[in-house]
Design a protein that fits this description.
The protein is an alpha/beta fold. The chain is about 35% helix and about 20% strand. The protein folds into 2 domains: about 240 residues, Carbon-nitrogen hydrolase (Nitrilase/N-carbamoyl-D-aminoacid amidohydrolase, 4-Layer Sandwich); about 200 residues, HUPs (Rossmann fold). It has a 7-stranded mixed β-sheet, with helices on one face. A 6-stranded mixed β-sheet has the order 6-7-8-9-12-13, covered by helices on one side. A 5-stranded parallel β-sheet has the order 18-17-16-19-20, with helices on both faces. Helix 6 runs parallel beside helix 7 and helix 6 packs across helix 11. The longest helix has 22 residues. It is elongated and about 90 Å long. The termini are far apart.
């Protein structure tokens, strides 16, 4: 064992565009060119690197599978120019058994090994059993005298696939991943990888995708652990990168270890990447944001500027008679600090016009939330008109706490194409604002200290209608992410009135959330793919 020469394995932490197989093949080709130039003999690309992840129902289209295979065949021939370099590509493939989530090893214009993913996840945001059939055999191939075992993403979270690879002679595990980010995901992954090294006595090289895909964000953070479970290399989070790792007798040698980002930095980076990729991959020329002078729109504006640049961001303040002067001042200062186009469009005239049209219909009825919602819907209409005229995407500004309890207006402040902070609880919104101000002080301090308000009626605050956000968010965490019952939450010390109010509002407003735009997922239970509840539902536990 000890007399073998070291080999170099390159890890391509790339950001594919889902469905653009030719462009993704070019990313892999350029990574191969770089890796070959640095003396690597093997290049790893992420899970389904040729298509992007997750392709969802594109996988049900025979033409898509055929086109993918055509691109793979062409890529195989192109890669032959890099003599002595093996490249592992992730892609779907069809055989008589069915469609597989596949990793194929290409070298010198030939397929030298192929692996079918064994464990298909069907939880959280994953739905692979809808599309793929499981493989049932290991893939261990020889490379410069070293036996390499291939695994795909979910495989490493279970003991059996790694154990089988070890039993079939593997001396090093290579894991290709499309593993989306959520809070504390990096720590969870590391713990799983350490467990596999303990189970098998083998080192692990772990490559993860990077980039945004609709609600999902892939955070990269690729790494290598030796057989003792020690971290010996770590790549940056939320950045495309290529790293060449030296391997001696099945053990990765020490390389650069990029420290993990702090929690707020992780979340903020995820929101920036998710917003940037959604806007750019869908070819929008820029974005429009309705400013209120409040903390939520302030955070969204900062994220948009960091994602796209100030030239691609337009802020619109739409004051009503209930808009406080300080909101006006703070919104203007924020826009100036961030260097974006800033416009003011008062809404009093169109609101008065709508209320005038409805005067007869509303006769003898007391003003209520209806009039408040008219204001919100006028603002939504104006923003969507600007979007139609300019082609720019409207970013909504509602947070997870508001979305959970329905403290938002359907076709009003929910109107837009992408909900940047829909999975960010209000208490975390404030933390992210403080984090952004530590980088550069752009959000006026008063926005962070004054009581939050929708400003749809005189002297309104959010706490007129809701429990304090610290209480609300804590109940949301227990009820939604931990699936605790109302009785369990009350038993944990929360006031029954607050618990029943919050849980009732969550149950009541599923219909609103179902109609909301997609947004970046950062939690284990985001609205959408993670949490799928019937709208028509009488259960109230």
């Amino acid at each position: 064992m000890g007399d073998r020469s070291p080999i170099k394995i390159a890890l391509a932490q790339i950001n594919p565009l889902l469905g653009d197989c030719s462009a993704n093949a070019e990313l892999i080709y350029q990574a191969a060119k770089d890796a070959h130039g640095q003396g690597a003999s093997l290049l790893l690309s992420p899970e389904l690197s040729l298509t992007g992840y997750p392709p969802e129902d594109l996988l049900l289209r025979p033409a898509f599978i055929a086109d993918t295979q055509t691109v793979l065949d062409h890529l195989c021939q192109r890669l032959a120019v890099f003599e002595g370099l093996a490249v592992v590509v992730g892609h779907p493939s069809q055989d008589p058994v069915g469609l597989h989530n596949t990793a194929t090893v290409l070298e010198d214009g030939k397929v030298i090994a192929r692996y079918y993913k064994q464990v298909l996840p069907n939880n959280e945001v994953f739905d692979e059993k809808r599309y793929f059939v499981s493989g049932n055999t290991s893939c261990v191939f020889s490379h410069h005298g070293l036996k390499l075992g291939l695994l795909l993403c979910e495989d490493i979270w279970h003991a059996e696939p790694a154990a089988n690879a070890r039993a079939n002679g593997a001396e090093l595990l290579l894991v290709m991943n499309a593993s989306p980010y959520h809070l504390e995901k990096d720590n969870t992954r590391l713990a799983v990888l350490k467990e596999r090294t303990q189970d098998t006595g083998l080192a692990v090289v772990y490559l993860n995708m990077v980039g945004g895909q609709d609600e999902l964000v892939f955070d990269g953070g690729s790494c290598a652990l030796n057989s003792k479970g020690e971290l010996v290399m770590a790549m940056p989070q939320f950045k495309e990168a290529l790293t060449v790792l030296s391997i001696q007798d099945g053990q990765p040698l020490h390389g650069e270890i990029t420290p993990p980002l702090a929690l707020e930095a992780q979340v903020y980076s995820a929101l920036v990447m998710g917003t940037r990729d959604y806007v750019r991959k869908n070819r929008f020329p820029g974005v429009i944001i309705g400013l209120s002078g409040g903390v939520d729109s302030a955070l969204v504006l900062a994220i948009a500027v960091d994602a796209l640049g100030a030239d691609h961001v337009r802020a619109v303040m739409m004051p009503s008679p209930y808009t406080a002067e300080i909101s006006w001042i703070d919104a203007c200062e924020l826009a100036k600090n961030l260097g974006v186009q800033y416009d003011e469009i008062p809404i009093s005239q169109p609101v008065d016009a709508i209320e005038g049209v409805l005067q007869e219909q509303f006769a003898n009825r007391t003003p209520d939330a209806t009039e408040e919602n008219i204001q919100a819907r006028v603002r939504g209409t104006l923003l969507m008109a600007l979007s139609n005229k300019t082609g720019r995407l409207v970013l909504t500004t509602g947070n997870k706490s508001e979305m959970a309890v329905g403290y938002c207006t359907l076709y009003g402040d929910m109107a837009g194409g992408f909900a940047v902070i829909k999975d960010i609880a209000k208490t975390l919104v404030y933390k992210l604002c403080h984090y952004r101000n530590q980088i550069q002080s752009v959000i006026p301090e008063r926005i962070l200290t004054r009581a939050p308000s929708a400003e749809l009626r005189p002297n309104q605050t959010d706490q007129d209608s809701l429990p304090p956000y610290e209480v609300l968010d804590a109940i949301l965490m227990r009820y939604m992410e931990q699936n605790q019952s109302s009785a369990e939450i009350i038993a944990a010390g929360f006031q029954s009135a607050a618990v029943f109010t919050v849980t009732h509002l969550i149950q009541l407003n599923e219909y609103k959330r179902r109609q909301g735009p997609p947004g970046v997922r950062v939690s284990l239970k985001a609205f959408g793919k993670d949490r799928r509840l019937p709208i028509t539902n009488a259960y109230r536990g």
